[in-house]
Amino acid sequence: MKKLLISPSQMALGEQEGQIYQNILKQASEISLNLMAVKIENHPEDFLGWCYELLHASRDRINHDLLETNQLPTLKKLHDLLISAISFLQLKTLRVAPWPVVSVFIEQHKDVLALDEQLRLTQYIAGIREQSLKEMIPEDLLTFTGKHTSSLDPSSYNFDVEWFSSTKSAKAFHQMLADLPALFDEALAHIPLEGEVTEADYQEFVLKYVHAFTDNNEKPTLAPATRLLAMRRPDVFTPLNNSRLDALCSALAITKLNNRDFARYWQDIVQAIHAMSWFKMANGDSELDQQLVAIKALVPCFFYYADTNSAENSNYIKLLSKPKRTTSTATKKVRRGKESAEILVDRALAADDIPEHIRAKRDSIISEVQKGRGVAETISLMRTIFG
Predict the structure, then answer these.
(1) Per-residue buried b or exposed e for 14-25, using 16+ beta carbons within 10 Å of the residue's own CB
(2) What confidence tens digit (pLDDT) does each residue in 128-175 have?
(3) Dihedral of the alpha carbons of 226, 232, 237, 242, in degrees to the nearest 10
(4) C-beta of residue 187 within 8 angstroms of C-beta of residue 209
(5) What is the pLDDT of residues 316-371, one digit of tens each?
(6) What's the pLDDT score for residue 330?
(7) Of 56, 133, 270, 333, which is least packed with CB atoms within 10 Å of its CB?
(8) HEC profile of the chain
(9) Computed from CA positions of residues 75, 77, 82, 83, in that sequence, does the dihedral angle turn out positive or negative?
(10) 176: Cβ–Cβ under 8 A, 6 or more apart, which residues?
(11) CA 266 centroid distance within chain
């Protein structure tokens, strides 16, 4: 372990990497005796590999039983620093990487990224993008804006809607969205659904977005706005997440944005990413490449740190894994509006494998779905009953 801890001092680290190393070393020194008990066989010669090895050693191979209670915050801080460092280093490669390297990285990490699930979300968004927010059923509105709730039936929404920057903590944003969706439609109307998006288009969006909040005595924040923009045009706008903003700004070598930096978002994030080689040369030779080109401004989201826990912590996976209770203490089902139930049921009944006698039970299925039963569960029940 000692050899591992000092090895970055022999690497040609830049100023940013050197500072990151010193911060990590400071936390590691406070639990050095515990770390020294971990056997190290892999000694990476690059800083990114070093961060991964120290993270795995301190998280997966350290003897947690020997840690004092007061050392646990230090260990967590160490892990947070390493995860942030990995995100920074991987994002930094985007400044020089050509498109084939970017595409291969994503394909090689598709399992930990839950890539198939994330792409299902983008494909679903593509199907509802032309609708106004005001016209969307509540479940689709949550999907577009990135907030998970238990009303999202996993048989209809087979993805976590919070990929690409969750907005679940933006309470004022969601309250206004529920009460005054037309105001956000007016803002998004300035962003064309295809073709070039100019700075003037973006500025008109910002003007309407900010006024929607200030006219209702609320404070506009940047992160939820970038989620709306990214879902409207995933080939142009990159969504921001407060917990990951440090890593992205460091990778782009810019001062960290605050939650009101609407002007800097266009200049320092959007324009900077558009100027990168991989962004300009993105092409769709393979099926995966074609999917990625259509959402190329979301590509940086795939370069943040991810591991098997990231995929397993998907809200979609958690809903699938949630045990079904049949006792009197079962959790109360979430009722749905009739319009939502009708749309969700009609989408499911449009599948080629649904027989006509099941389609004839549409009204009964809608009634059950309104009560909170899952669409797939209800159709399966009808199949069992009626053959």
Answers:
(1) eeebeebbeebb
(2) 999 999 999 999 999 999 999 988 889 899 999 999 999 999 999 999
(3) 20
(4) yes
(5) 998 887 765 544 444 456 677 777 888 888 888 888 888 888 888 888 888 888 88
(6) 45
(7) 333
(8) CHHHHHHHHHCCCCHHHHHHHHHHHHHHHHCHHHHHCCCCCCCCCCHHHHHHHHHHHHHHHCCHHHCCHHHHHHHHHHHHHHHHHHHHHHHHHHHCCCHHHHHHHHHHCHHHHCHHHHHHHHHHHHHHCCCCHHHCCHHHHHHHHCCCCCCCCCCCCCCCCCCCCCCCCCHHHHHHHHHCHHHHHHHHCCCCCCCCCCHHHHHHHHHHHHHHHHCCCCCCCHHHHHHHHHHHCCCCCCCCCHHHHHHHHHHCCCCCCCCCCHHHHHHHHHHHHHCCHHHHHCCCCCHHHHHHHHCHHHHHHHHCCCCHHHHHCCHHHHHHHCCCCCCCCCCCCCCCCHHHHHHHHHHHHCCCCCCHHHHCCHHHHHHHHHCCCCHHHHHHHHHHHHC
(9) positive
(10) 183, 184, 212, 213, 216, 218
(11) 20
11: its two tokens: 């690497």
Phi, psi of 198 (to 5 degrees): -90, 165
Q: CA–CA separation, 125 vs 140, rounded Å?
A: 9
CA distance 171 to 143: 16
Report the distance separating Cα 240 and Cα 62, nearest Å: 33
State the amino acid at position 274 in one-letter form. Answer: H
| Interval 165-212: pLDDT, tens | 999 999 999 999 999 999 999 999 999 999 999 999 999 999 999 999
| Average model confidence (pLDDT) across the chain | 92
For 368, the token pair is: 């059950």
Token match 């979301």: residue?
A: 298
CA angle at 77 for the pair 251 and 79, rounded to the nearest 5°: 65
Mean pLDDT of all residues in 308-321:
88
